[in-house]
Amino acid sequence: MGPSFEKGLRTVGRRRLPDGVVAILDDHETLRAAIRELHAYAIQNRSRSRQRRAIIFRVVNAGERQAFLAKLSQFFGPKNLSIQESIYGFEVGHFHFVDDSFMSHVTSRHSIETVPGHVAVTVDDLVCIPEIVNPKWIVNFRFIKKMPRIIYERRYDRSTIVVVQEIQANAGLSVKTIYKKK
Fold first, then answer.
1. Contact at 8 Å (CB) between 159 and 178?
2. Alpha-carbon gap, residue 73 to 84, rounded angstroms
3. Deepest of 58, 60, 145, 155, by most Cβ within 10 A of its Cβ?
4. Which are the contacts of 68, defined by CB distance < 8 A and separation ≥ 6?
5. CA dist list (Å): 83 to 28, 55, 110
6. Cα–Cα distance, 74 to 124 (Å, whole number)
7. How far apart are CA 42 and CA 53, in angstroms?
8. Residue 169 and residue 60: Cα distance in Å, rounded?
9. Residue 44, H or E segment
């Protein structure tokens, strides 16, 4: 991995991160460069036996959780909030992260887009993920492959980028896919 990835923290709070996982929480330029490096790593190392690599780009805080719960309430209604809150376990301390398997998926499925109305995803789009993954950009909640997912959507000048994040009870909030619409 490159120099930006190597600048990442190996611990968050008192939690030691697994090998190959770093946290880049406050330095946006280093984070952008590390995402580029992770993308390059996934392209160069296509073997399924490659060492796992991941970047934690944010830790859920109380304010983010509160904004998330407001979106849940908006979508499902205040009466259903407690049920939906238990299904979509978005907790303070969970990590938002991208990993090399996500990068491989994007490279193989979305870098040459064949779906009508979609545009190919570039590495420049990938570095926007940390700013798109924000409760204010949530447009839907779904279950996909029996896992709760959050769909974010943000409009830019000429396209809309959609990011899908899966809530994993033990791992946190994993970015699963990204695509771009005209």
1. no
2. 8
3. 58
4. 60, 88, 90, 135, 138
5. 35, 31, 34
6. 32
7. 9
8. 14
9. helix 28-44
| Axis crossing angle, helix 100-109 with helix 28-44, rounded to the nearest 10 | 70
Residue 94 contacts residue 59 (beta carbons within 8 Å): yes
Question: What is the token pair recorded at 62?
Answer: 């109380």
Name the amino acid, one letter, at 66.
Answer: Q
Read off the amino acid at residue 44: Q
* pTM score above 0.85: yes
